[in-house]
Amino acid sequence: MNIRVVVVGGGSWGSTVASLAARNTATTLWARRPEVAKEVDTHHTNSAYLPGFKLSDSLRATDSLEDAVGGADVVVMGVPSHGFRQTLEQVADHIRPWVPVVSLTKGLEQGTDLRMTEVVQELLPGHPAGVLTGPNLAKEILAGDAAASVVAMSEPHIAEVLQRVFSSDLFRVYTNPDVIGCEIAGALKNVIALAAGIADGLGTGDNTKAAVITRGLAELTRLGVAMGGRPETFAGLAGMGDLIATCISRQSRNRYVGEQLGKGRSLADIIAEMDQVAEGVKSTAVVMHLARQHGVDMPICSEMDGVVSEGRSPQEAYRGLLRRAPKPEMRER
Fold first, then answer.
1. 5-177 domain in CATH 3.40.50.720?
2. In sequence order, what DSSP letters do the residues of 77-97 get, joined into one string?
3. Active site residues per annotation
4. In degrees, to the nearest 5, what angle opens at C-alpha 280 toward C-alphas 274 and 284?
5. Rounded to two decimals, what is the model's pTM?
6. Contacting residues for 178 by C-beta, under 8 A, at least 6 apart
7. What is the CATH architecture of 180-322?
8. What is the tens place of the pLDDT at every residue in 74-124?
């Protein structure tokens, strides 16, 4: 393929996506830390975030954003939500007109409640914006395990090109025009994963965790549809698929944070020891603001916001859920 891809962000998932794309077309990874960029470019490894794994031999890397972005035909944003705007402002100084921007970020912007593609549209009007999302654990993909994902873009012809950019024999990429639904599902599943992790930490058993996952899916579907997403999106890879993987995997950062909270550790101590972001922690307050704005009942997310923002104990959060009056399983709001 004669398409130049640049992935902005040298974390585990950004590096993995860059490695996937490099198998199909010329790809450069931008890493903020020069030592990470040098290691990826020279040795095709990223020991800081993916120790023991090999990246594509054809992947290049740099710590110069201007050199990376200036000639790109596709820019992939693989930075956390709290740094997305600032990094994109720097990208805007170098990107050519009309170049598509694909977000890997599964979070919402604090203070504005914006989805990442909305941030792209605000800072880079005229640039097609979409997301790559799904049940995608970086280490499993690099290990060669089969996985599937979704590229969501409102322009179908661009989505089909991106589908070919990221696909491989073991990484199957589907297209979906529902950008809103895919983004909301990706952000909200991290909040539900906190609750699933707390269930593990409290030792409540698989029945409880299954109920959390299932009712969590109902919550993120209600809000996603209220915001303009399509119901079927939440039953697919971006919704149920990603939710299951994030809630049950030992590799999930959000599930891990919940588990440690359930074991009695403080949130500050848990976050301090982590070298990557657990987006669910940052998303809880934004999710609840959106829920109130759209009149959507989200009891699990509400209790997680209480734990993260108000210091509520995990035990109190679960008791709060049990105290709720019984309601029909199927309801619009």
1. yes
2. E-S-HHHHHHHHHHHHTTPPT
3. 189
4. 135
5. 0.93
6. 152, 229, 230, 233
7. Orthogonal Bundle (1.10)
8. 999 999 999 999 999 999 999 999 999 999 999 999 999 999 999 999 999
